[in-house]
Amino acid sequence: MSEDIQTGLAEILEEVAGVAPADATPEKSFTEDLDVDSLSMVEIATAVEDKFGVAIPDDELGNIKTVGDAISFIQKNQ
Amino acid sequence: MTSLQLPSGAPGARILGFGSYRPRRRVTNDELAQTMDTNDEWIQGRVGIAERRWAAPDETLVEMSVAAGGKALAASGLDAGDIDLVLLATTSPPTAIPGLAPRIAHQIGVPRPGAFDVNAGCAGWCYALSAAADAIRSGSARHALVIGGERLTDYTNLDDRATAVIFADGAGAAVLGPSDEPAVGPVVWGSDGDLHEAIAIPEGEAGMSMAGQAVYRWATTKLTDTLVEAMRRAGVGPEDIDVFAPHQANLRIIELMAKRLKLPERTVIARDVVTSGNTSSASVPLALAALVESGEAKTGDVALLLGYGAGLTFAGQVVVLP
């Protein structure tokens, strides 16, 4: 389950921010490690919403700092 | 019940000419980086702005608007006496009273027109364009001058790197007149007042604040539908769009919208934000005036316009360029 989410998330990261899928591992920080800026985070959030059927309000978005944070958010809210 | 008489109006309205005024002073990203913790790469990466124009004390909102309006009048080939409606879209008047449109009209030499200010955030000029076109169509006016003017630096904390790198000053204008062939399409406008705090000068504060992520999300998810509906209601499709001139807020939003609309390769996309920054309700007429002046936009071109901003408000329409 979490592997499926990680794969789907990696696809979004590649499409939106040009992150190589192999780099999208749970411990990676979006801003520090993957060079994803705050506006790309919004695009990732909206793509995640479409793909996984979850809602990510802006105030929640600030708490999602790593790929792992995003995976657990999706798992909890799907 | 008494039935009242109505004027016959006109089959449609048409833009007859554009004019613009850009403040003299160019402020580059490198200049801003000298006084605040930012840099050219960061600014260009986030918002796509390389430089912006900031008004000097003598470049007041009235003076800039008079200059832009006068040029639009000259481009239209009309006399000041032909104009009977003057609208100023602005969010940044120096005081609340009086509205500035009557004074601007007076300084341009327009005798006693209907005149009022429109505050619909950065969508203001597109709102005013629609109001003017409808006034011409209904017979409430014959020729209208529609100005978008801003001195946003008066309401920006110029030490705040989140907003100072974005907002700027200037004025753009268009003259409209009656037309047998409609050349200003139906407006698709609306508002999302639940997001009223997203772009605001909070009470008791002097400078504007913006929830960047919330506004970016709103602009990139909700407004494509507005553009599609504006084209549908005007009876055109993406393949017909020669010029795409959305509000110049952020180059990334402009590029994303163009991509999602699947505009053809040949469509000229306004990227005036790169050298003008975000001038709120002045941005669409400034961008259009620049494209017409440079020859990138030609007579008869079909242009898709979109204003959006504080309110939050939005307005899109298709026009045929003069």
Summarize this structure briefly.
The complex is a heterodimer of chains A (78) and B (322). Chain A is mostly helical and 78 residues long.
Question: What does this 3D model show about the protein?
Answer:
The complex is a heterodimer of chains A (78) and B (322). Chain A has 4 helices and no strands. With 78 residues, chain A is mainly alpha-helical. Chain A has a single domain, classed as ACP-like (Non-ribosomal Peptide Synthetase Peptidyl Carrier Protein, Chain A). The N and C termini of chain A lie close together (11 Å). Chain B has 322 residues and is an alpha/beta fold. Chain B has 2 domains: 168 residues, Peroxisomal Thiolase, Chain A, domain 1; 133 residues, Thiolase/Chalcone synthase (Peroxisomal Thiolase, Chain A, domain 1). Chain B is 34% helix and 24% strand. In chain B, strand 13 and strand 14 form a beta hairpin. In chain B, helix 3 crosses helix 4 and helix 7 runs parallel beside helix 8. Chain B is globular and about 65 Å long. The N and C termini of chain B lie far apart (44 Å). The relative contact order of chain B is 0.20. The model of chain B has no long low-confidence stretch (mean pLDDT 96). Chains A and B meet through helix 2 of A and helix 7 of B.
Low-confidence stretches of chain A: none
Biggest sheet overview of chain A = none
What is the number of E strands of chain A? 0
Strand content of chain A: under 5%
Q: Overall 3D geometry of chain A? A: globular
Tell me the helix content of chain A.
Answer: 55-70%
Distance between the termini of chain B: 44 Å
Strand content of chain B: 15-25%
Give the SSE string of chain A: HHHH
User: Helical region count of chain B?
Assistant: 10
The radius of gyration over CA of chain A amounts to 11 Å
Indicate the radius of gyration of chain B in whole angstroms.
19 Å
At the fold tier of CATH, the topology name of the largest domain in chain B is Peroxisomal Thiolase, Chain A, domain 1
Structural class of chain A: mainly alpha
What is the mean predicted local confidence, pLDDT of chain A?
A: 91
